[in-house]
Amino acid sequence: MVDEEYTCIVCGKKFYPGQGIVLQRGSLRLFFHSSKCASKFFKMLLDRVDSSCINNAALVLIKDLEKSRAERGNKKVIA
Ligand SMILES: [Zn+2]
């Protein structure tokens, strides 16, 4: 049995399932052999996407992250 081999979309390096980062949203599948390549891709994506499309989603995400950080912080104080 041969495992499916993935190719990093940023640098072209091959990797196997369980390694690297694989993101799937519907028909979109993104393969990164490392978090470094993933962050490079998302930086490039941010440069290409119209800021009006991404600003709202990014701001909501930042708020959610802040909220979950605050919740974790509260739990630490309780514990
Ligand atoms: Zn890579």
Helix content: 40-55%
The topology string of helices and strands comes to EEEEHH
**Number of beta-strand segments:** 4
Structural class: alpha+beta
Segments where pLDDT lies below 50 for 5+ residues? none
Cα gyration radius (Å): 17 Å
Which range does the strand content fall in?
A: 15-25%
Principal-axes geometry comes out as extended
| Overall pLDDT confidence | 90
The CATH class of the largest domain turns out to be: Mainly Beta
Helix count equals 2
Main beta sheet strand tally, sense and closure: 2 strands, antiparallel
Count of separate structural domains: 2
Identify the notable features of this structure and list them briefly.
single chain, 79 residues, alpha+beta, Ribosomal Protein L24e, Chain: T, 2 domains, two-stranded antiparallel ribbon, 2 helices, 4 strands, 18% strand, extended, binds zinc ion
